[in-house]
Amino acid sequence: EAVRGLAPTSIELREPRHAVGRLKEEKNRGTQGWVCIPLPYISGRHCVIMAEETSDQDTGDAAPRVVLKDESSNGVYVNNRKIGKGSQAVLENGCAVHLFLPK
After folding, report:
1. How far lies 18's CA from each of 46, 55, 72, in Å?
2. Domain count across the chain
3. Residue 103 lies in a domain
4. Which CATH number do you get for residue 41?
5. Which of 5, 16, 67, 70 is disulfide-compatible with 76, CB 3.0–4.6 A?
6. Number of other residues whose CB lies within 10 A of the CB of residue 81
7. CA atoms within 13 Å, Cβ hemisphere of 92
8. The domain containing residue 25 runs over which residues?
9. Alpha helices in 1-103 (DSSP H)
10. SS3 of residue 101 by DSSP
11. Is the torsion defined by CA of 82, 78, 43, 31 positive or negative?
12. What is the 3-state secondary structure (H, E, C) of 59-96?
């Protein structure tokens, strides 16, 4: 229960690129959006969330896509599936992202 007060339950993406981690913002200059979660099992730079423009295969129209890159030591989970350090996952509307092993 103590974790609930320190870790946000949602992150509003206002920039095309956000980093999430334990380190304070001033140590991550150059990152457009930074979310600091001061918990010991969150890596200094735990993951990066990026908005990318892609084109719809049928219409050719621009279609935004949100990608999460795992940069953690302990893992990031999307819909209870571990992503793995250096790997990426496409985030869909309504998916669950956990910064540590979900219950």
Report:
1. 11, 22, 15
2. 1
3. no
4. 2.60.200.20
5. 70
6. 11
7. 2
8. 2-98
9. 2-6
10. coil
11. positive
12. CCCEEEEEEEEECCCCCCEECCEECCCCCEEEECCCCC
Q: From 44, 70, 2, select the one nearest 34 (Cα to Cα).
A: 44
Place of tokens 């219950």: 103
Q: What is the pLDDT of residue 31?
A: 56
> Are the C-beta atoms of 84 and 65 separated by less than 8 Å?
no
Task: Check whether 2 has a pLDDT greater than 50.
Answer: no
Structure confidence at residue 1 (pLDDT): 43
Mean predicted confidence (pLDDT) in 66-88: 95
Exposure string of 20-58, with b = 16+ CB inside 10 Å and e = fewer, is: bbbbeeeeeeebebbbbbeeeebbebbbbbbeeeeeeee
Q: What is the pTM of this model?
A: 0.78
16-41 pLDDT, tens digit per residue, is 888 999 887 655 555 568 888 888 88
Question: Which has the closest alpha carbon to 101: 87, 84, 80?
Answer: 80
Give first-to-last CA distance, the chain, whole Å: 13
| Average pLDDT, integer, range 80-93 | 95
